[in-house]
Amino acid sequence: MSRLTSACLAAGLISASLSGAVMAADEGKDTYAWLEDVTGDKPLAWVKEQNAKAEARLAQSPQFKEMEAGIRAVLDSDAKIPGVEKIGDYYYNFWKDKQHERGVWRRTTLVEYRKAEPLWETVLDLDALNKAEGENWVWHGANCLRPQYTRCLIALSRGGADADVTREFDVARKEWIKDGFFRPEAKGGLGWIDQDNVFVYTDFGDGTMTTSGYPRVVKRWKRGTPMSAATPVYEGTPQDMYIAAMHDDTPGFERDFVSRTIAFYNNELFLIGADGALTKVDAPNSAEKGVRREWLTLELREPWTVGGKTYAAGSLLATKFDDFMAGKREFDVLFAPTDTTSLAGAAWTRNHVVLNVLDDVKNRLKVLTHGKDGWSSSDFVGAPAFGTIGVGAVDPDESDAVWMTVTDYLTPTTLSLAQIGQQPEVLKTMPAFFDASGKVIEQHFATSKDGTRVPYFVVHGKDMKLDGSNPTLLYGYGGFEISLTPSYSGGMGRAWLDKGGVYVVANIRGGGEYGPRWHQAALKQNRHKAYEDMAAVAQDLVSRRITSARHLGVQGGSNGGLLTGNMLTQYPELFGAVVVQVPLLDMKRYSHLLAGASWMAEYGNPDTADWEFIKTFSPYHLFDPAKDYPPVLFTTSTRDDRVHPGHARKMAARMIDAGKNVTYYENIEGGHGGAANNAQAAHMSALAYSFLWEQLGGK
Q: Which of 69, 70, 584, 690 has the highest CB neighbour number within 10 Å of its CB?
């Protein structure tokens, strides 16, 4: 069973006059609440009006169309690396290009995959399916039943929403199974137990979903019976985030589990006994729990004292699963963090564990092997000295082979097949989509308001003049323990670097670059530290004369949209343009909109005394009509059923009515990703880059 994870924003004190404005906005009626009606006629008419203005302003020039076409060419390119997943004897890939707008699920053999032009066998064509069914399905993945791997549970979403359906498919016959397992559209899922039984967690009717809009109940469902007759396995509370169950089908270690996610990084794991009774894996709720063959691993997010020893937050512990369940509390420490290191991941092969460690946001690999004398450590043969490295097992039950990807901002991604202890075999290399010659990557450190050292990466031309005039795009996220490491983007390279722009990525607190402590440092009442970090990076760029406020833009999406919303409202003097994508902005209402309740562990509960600190980072309430703000672009999606489009709509409307320079665009499809196909993705990206280039004085 794969490792279980829970995881999917500089403020300081505001002035007395601004504090009064916040309270007035809070206590007064929200005159823009009507825009929360996602598909209402009046809100959609407003959206269409704003979209038309955005299109007329940004999308009509030859330069825009050239940029959009360049990004689209990258997304549609047949030369991209087709990432594969080994399922039985075949290697499966989901592929989108110009001819396959919604994509094809296809497979090949390893012999073919090694070739420059593999021979692919199409298993399911989503474009053909959509045409036949009159739908707009978006691929959400497949779960195939071992050992034959012919029966698969395929999840499909309308327009890219989080809610999806699950249908049973026969990959041998390449057809849907008549009267097979079918889960109606909802947030949730199906998971195999055996050919005739599945775990189902979904919307069973009133009272079966959490306040976050995710499954609260999991049941065992037998083939040939209606889903309504499925047997309850576990029921969580309405305040929980997500309830699910899964079957570990590792030969010789078959087990069933229930997972209860209470909040991000707060979960419980239960072993289901033969009699259906549940036994809790009695580890801290904050620890990420993984079960692999005979092993239980615990990735700690808080210090833990157990068995007479104290283990540091950020450590990875291992013990025998059966021993732990029997009450023993003896652990091996597979990883312990330092001031500059954190655990990025651990990949299990048949006989080894590959540790992926971040050291000042640079990946380092180690191989751990268990023998009669315990665990031993060795270097990963062939790992590069620089670049973002990803490692995943090819078939953890059968081999010690791993996939290894290597990339950075200027180096196209390579995919290698590596046997532990041997030099990796490069299988695929992504083509260069832009000219990286004459460009360099640098890492700098800014000093935040409280003295914290904050790393950031800068990508620029070697001939860049330090005169403060360079159009510079600063990107950040800063939440949910998500790390931002260097990665290759052909679209960004073509649309920004090729034009002479400078690209910056900030590794601010709230992220996971230095492990749990980096994340926890910016939670709830400390959220302002993430924004202080981002402001410090902006100020450092100016002090280095790389750019100036007039030429500095900032961009972020989702939690990063909350970040850029706060840059807009709290630090308007630092930026020449702001892009806010699929954002949270109304932090008084966020927990009542779609999945918002699931993020209260990150931001706090605005319906309690927490509002006293939440209001200090709620852009919707921080907006002051009397203040000057840089030009801003808001983008979102009507089909986003994770972060409500009302956030972006209401903020944009409030600013437009106050006479501010606002551009707004809402894609009708796309879910939280913002786009349902390559054409939409290219259009959305081109809108953002065109807006930034225009506002930041790009030539």
A: 584
